[in-house]
């Protein structure tokens, strides 16, 4: 436990599941904070090596590790991956002790989160949902923005740990899915920015306006926004690899939004365009490019 | 002529046409710069009173004023208004002396600008197109962003005068319509931001996420943009009056973009949504509300 932590956690050990492009640097920051002893688990154990070198213990027997921990983090890609480790025999619901906390940090469906929260409650366990904004570079720097929702006492316990991965940590209430709504709405707005840039630059190219100059002028005149400028430049330069965020994941997130909207009879015309645009991009072979390759889709169709 | 001007204009007098919500503060800043003697003309002469008090001379006989000036500014609402003063007998094309410069500062159609430029050339006159980004508050403060295109010598002459109304002045080449493309593409991107916010907030309300909190979190986590925050807050608070920019004008500008795109066989799916959304808003009585009332349109339809 770090003597300097602003508000020490009452928990001294935890299990971390997920060592992908985001999970790896996030767990690494948690380890180096010295706030907690961390065991780490991943479907592909080879990915855990950097975390073991940093001082984490490798968990090979997930079922046993779960039964010995008061706290488990999951940073997994989608609902299916979380469902797998949560609902399998010997998984989180089965083995996490009563009173244990599951902090679920991926970008997941709010409906799945509501369902998982209820199952945890039935087991006497607690679900905290804490999705993050930021790409791997911000995960490495520990400057993610974290949206956290769940029961107050559990949020109090894990907040100092979340702060090792990013700040601010926005606490948005006691219903876990609230955090997921905010996360997927945020990604939806980024999708809207991409579509806006994609169409603007496609027309700019056709009328002989320099895409790079257009982005510079509009950011200076109107936006003053690093996000506007960064995505604008990726599209102006058509530099879609390496991807910061795959087009396939963009499709996943716009689907999450459209499904929630559909349940509530909310029409999202921009959402429908994004869905069709990302699908078109994937079918043209851009699925593992940055989702800003939506610009290429619009350029293709502008001739 | 102001001794302190960084690059004095070689022109000592000019005529200003247009005293609307933008033209009035822009002309006022030009007068108070003392860089030039200004005559002013407006279809409704009563609007000119503040400019006369500031030291401008009122031009009642437009034809005569034009024949005596080396430089005329127009800050008028649309193509039709400029066409009227430019093409009527005794108008700008008819009376501006050979070598005279017409600086056209409204948000106009690039196609119209190309046509007008050719007509000016046939008369030995020069067209500079210099549309602006910024609402009336920025016009008053003299902090507009100005996009200027036209022959180099003419741009050199008028740039010190443009700088009394805003900076930076972006010079984007010698084809006047280039400036108009950038201006209408810029407004198109703002329309895209409005649609994005409108759909996001409509869904947020339905799922119980506070619109104000969503805007705060997303601006902190992702955008860091005064424009994102300002339009987000207008929509979150549903404060569509007083309007900074009418929905009717939003429709006008998206039509300018769609018409140029259509000529070039460029499809703009987001543009089509904006066109339908602004039209719907106008038919529901929101035409003189701020164009952010696109949020109300999406809320209406989300039930």
Automatic annotation (TrEMBL), chains A, B:
Keywords: NAD, Oxidoreductase. It comes from the Bacteria. InterPro entries: 6-PGluconate_DH-like_C_sf (IPR008927), 6PGD_dom2 (IPR013328), 6PGDH_NADP-bd (IPR006115), HIBADH-like_NADP-bd (IPR029154), HIBADH-related (IPR015815), HIBADH-related_NP60_sf (IPR051265), NAD(P)-bd_dom_sf (IPR036291). GO terms for molecular function: NAD binding; NADP binding; oxidoreductase activity. Residues 16-173 form the 6-phosphogluconate dehydrogenase NADP-binding domain. The active site is at residue 183. The keyword NAD applies. Residues 180-294 form the 3-hydroxyisobutyrate dehydrogenase-like NAD-binding domain. This is NAD(P)-dependent oxidoreductase. The lineage of its organism: Bacteria, Pseudomonadati, Nitrospirota, Nitrospiria, Nitrospirales.
């Amino acid at each position: 436990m770090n003597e300097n932590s602003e508000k020490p956690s009452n928990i001294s050990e935890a299990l971390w599941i997920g060592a992908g492009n985001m999970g790896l640097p996030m767990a690494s920051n948690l380890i180096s904070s010295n706030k907690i002893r961390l065991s780490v688990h991943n479907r592909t154990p080879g990915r855990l090596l950097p975390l073991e070198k940093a001082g984490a213990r490798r968990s090979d027997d997930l079922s046993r590790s779960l039964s010995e921990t008061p706290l488990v983090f999951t940073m997994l890609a989608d609902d299916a991956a979380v469902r797998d480790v949560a609902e399998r025999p010997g998984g989180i619901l089965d083995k996490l002790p009563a009173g244990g906390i599951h902090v679920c940090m991926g970008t997941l469906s709010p409906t799945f989160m509501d369902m998982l929260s209820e199952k945890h409650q039935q087991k006497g366990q607690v679900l905290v949902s804490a999705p993050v904004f930021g790409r791997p570079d911000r995960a490495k720097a520990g400057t993610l923005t974290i949206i956290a929702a769940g029961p107050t006492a559990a949020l109090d316990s894990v907040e100092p740990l979340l702060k090792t991965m990013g700040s601010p940590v926005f606490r948005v209430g006691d219903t876990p899915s609230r955090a997921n709504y905010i996360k997927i709405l945020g990604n939806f707005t980024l999708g809207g920015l991409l579509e806006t840039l994609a169409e603007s630059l496609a027309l700019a190219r056709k009328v002989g306006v320099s895409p790079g100059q257009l982005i510079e002028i509009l950011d200076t005149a109107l936006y003053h926004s690093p996000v506007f400028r960064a995505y604008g430049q990726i599209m102006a330069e058509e530099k879609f690899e390496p991807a910061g965020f795959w087009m396939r994941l963009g499709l996943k997130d716009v689907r999450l939004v459209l499904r929630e909207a559909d349940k509530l009879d909310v029409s999202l015309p921009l959402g429908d365009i994004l869905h069709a645009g990302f699908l078109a991009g994937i079918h043209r072979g851009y699925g593992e490019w940055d989702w800003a390759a939506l610009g290429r889709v619009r350029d293709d169709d502008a001739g």
